[in-house]
Amino acid sequence: MPTIPQDPNKFRCPWCMGFEQYIKYHDEEWGVPVYDDQTHFEFLILESAQAGLSWATILKKREGYRHAFADFDYQVVADLPDSYVTELLQDPSIIRNELKIRAAINNAKRFMEIQSQFGSFSKYIWEFVDGKVIDRQLRSMQNAPATTPESDKLAKDLKKRGFKFLGSTTIYAHMQATGLVNDHLTTCFRYEEVKLLAK
């Protein structure tokens, strides 16, 4: 697939310049601070499915995941039976990996345990950045870290709570996607826009 050229009047982070769906994701979602639990759960499912794959692959299957996992309703996902896991292993609209599918169901249960303890998953996760967006003011993609002390700490805590397929690299991607970190390049048109959305 040919790479879509940069718009000289609207510079974007170079990583999204692959296809229209990727650009739309970058322009409308990536880096926007998320305080809604269902959105956090959606990204946790998608990011755990990404392990070993590209985010572009997951984006292309996002609607498949939405359908397969009850519009990312964690209460429904937590109760999915083994027979449904077998069914999903035949579904080409998602990544047919049994460990990842079972991890999604497990993580839904652990997700609700956090809600019970902290009031919401959002409240829990934002505590790892002291409730404030980390602004790295990146000038180059080469300066973007794969993990940080915050993602290390969060991933370690999630693992202790029983979450699966959510290591530090995956969790840092979650932090970037859900706006705990603003990792848009400072030259990207979304950098200032996202900055204004922080509470």
From TrEMBL:
The record ties this protein, via Gene3D superfamilies, to:
Hypothetical protein, domain 2
- Say yes or no: keyword Chloroplast present: no
UniProt superkingdom: Bacteria
> Which keywords accompany this UniProt record?
Glycosidase, Hydrolase, Metal-binding, Zinc
Note the InterPro entries from the entry: Adenine_glyco, DNA-3mA_glycosylase, DNA_glycosylase
Q: Does the keyword Nuclease apply?
A: no
Q: Where does Zn(2+) bind?
A: C13, H26, H184, C188
This enzyme's EC code(s): 3.2.2.20
| GO BP term, pick one | base-excision repair
Q: Which Pfam families match?
A: Adenine_glyco
Q: What GO molecular functions are on record for this protein?
A: DNA-3-methyladenine glycosylase activity; metal ion binding
This chain belongs to the protein called: 3-methyladenine DNA glycosylase
Q: Which organism is it from?
A: Belliella baltica (strain DSM 15883 / CIP 108006 / LMG 21964 / BA134)
Q: What is the lineage of its organism?
A: Bacteria, Pseudomonadati, Bacteroidota, Cytophagia, Cytophagales
